[in-house]
Amino acid sequence: MKKVSKRIEIIANILEAEDKNVWDLCCDHGQLGSYLLENKNVRKVFFVDRVPKIMDSLEKILNHSFSKERFECQTLDAHEIDPTPNDVITICGVGGQLAISLMNAFLKKLKESESTYLICAHYHMYDLRLFLRDNHLKLISEKLIEDQGRMYELLYVSHMGSEEIPLIGSKMWDFSNLHHIRYLDKTLSHYQKKGHQESAPYLLYKNLKDSLKN
Ligand SMILES: C[S@@+](CC[C@H](N)C(=O)[O-])C[C@H]1O[C@@H](n2cnc3c(N)ncnc32)[C@H](O)[C@@H]1O
Prior knowledge:
single chain, about 210 residues, alpha/beta, 2 domains, globular, binds S-adenosylmethionine
């Protein structure tokens, strides 16, 4: 199997070793699901992408590497999947708005089940966190990943925990790491450029930044 990116490796390794079904949604080359099949104790991976060409070539590659019982390829819009209430659902490498829309669809089907969700989206992370919190999801863990100069927030959540989802992140920050400081500055300047200095997210990020000066 080809070496995967640092981001994929960190996402995969946040999962507890579990004998569960995992959904690799919007999977593209299927790097996350393939890594899990190879390195983690997962029962079966369902790979989903809406582009037929992507799924055809992925299925050929998977057929060479894994037995047929361990994976299934589904060419469809990820909103249409039919998971069972104990599955692990991963949504990675997509925008925050799509992640919200997908979670909205799954929560209608699964309600407050034992499913766990691993989400590593870009942009609109505050909106995504707020949506998850409003829907009573709890934090299992969170990480801020740096990979080749780009930053990614990773959220591992479920309805089973007790820790409230922090709206701008909490344990993920490590301010001895320059990448984290730059990410906070970049997020603040994003809200400033949009003229959103009175908005709740801006004020929360600003508070966090100010607390570093003390
Ligand atoms: C940038 S890739 C992300 C690949 C991988 N998940 C990762 O983290 O590297 C985004 C993929 O999402 C797929 N996609 C976008 N919207 C989708 C949807 N509604 N349903 C299924 N696949 C979708 C695209 O076809 C594309 O292959």
